[in-house]
Description:
The chain is an all-alpha fold. The protein is built from 15 helices and no strands.
Amino acid sequence: MHPTTFVARREKRTVLSGAAPVRWLLIGMALAFLGFFLVVPLVAVFSYALQKGVGAYLEAIQEPESLSAIRLTLLAAAIAVPLNLAFGLSAAWLIARFRFCGRDVLLTLIDLPFSVSPVIAGLVFVLLFGRQGWFGPWLVEHDIHIIFAVPGIVLATVFVTFPFVVREVLPIMQAQGSDEEEAALTLGASGWRMFFQITLPKVKWGVLYGVLLCNARAMGEFGAVSVVSGHVRGATNTLPLHAEILYNEYNLAGAFAVASLLTVLALVTLAIKKYVEWRAEAP
C-alpha cells in the first residue's frame, strides 16, 4: 500500500472516531425531540381517550353528533380529493408540457393556499357567498345555502387542499420530459390514449402520494371549515370542530376519543405514505 494512502485512511478513521460523539449527540437530540413533540402527545391522546374505559370510548364515538361529524368529514374528503386530483393532473400536465402567457401566474395561484391563512380563506368564502356577500342576495332568492352548510365546507376544503396533487406531480412530469409522449403522438395515438398509457403510469406514485397528502389535510382541516361551517351541531361540524366543542364543554374523554380517530387516520396515512415511497424507490 502506498504510504500516502495509508496516512489518508488513518486520518479518515481518526476524523470519524472523533465525530462519533457528535453523531450520537445529534441522534439523541433528534430522538428526544421526536419523543417529546410526537410520541408523548400521541400517547396522551389515546390515554385520555381510554381514561374511562373502552365502553365510554365507544359510547363517545357512537353518539349521533360524533357519527354525523365522521360522515361529514368523510363526505368533504370524498368530494375534495377527486376534484383536486383532476385539477392537479390537468394543471401539472399543462404547466409541464406547454409554455403560455400566464403560466407563472398560474404557478403563483397554485401556491396561494400555502401562504394564505385558512381563516382568511374561510372569510373570503363568507364575503362571496354569505347573506351580505357578493352573491348572497341571489342565493337567498333562489334558496341556495352555501355558507353554514355542506357546500361551504366542501368549497373551503377544496381550496386549502388543491395544491397538494399538482405540487407532487409537476416535478416528476418536468423531470421525465415529453419524448415518449411525442413519439406516441407521432405513431398516431390519441391524446387520451397517450395520457392513460404513457403519462399517467410514469407519474402514478407521485399522484398517489399527492392524493394521500390531500386526503390527510382534507380530513384534518380546521381553520377555513370553522369559519364557513357555523358550528351547527349534528349538521355542519367535522371531526376537528366536534373535538373542539367537546373540549370546550370539558368533556375530555369525548374530545380525545374523537381526536383519537383523527390520529388513527393520520397514522394510517403515514403508513401508506411510507409504503408508496418504498415502492417508488424500488427498482
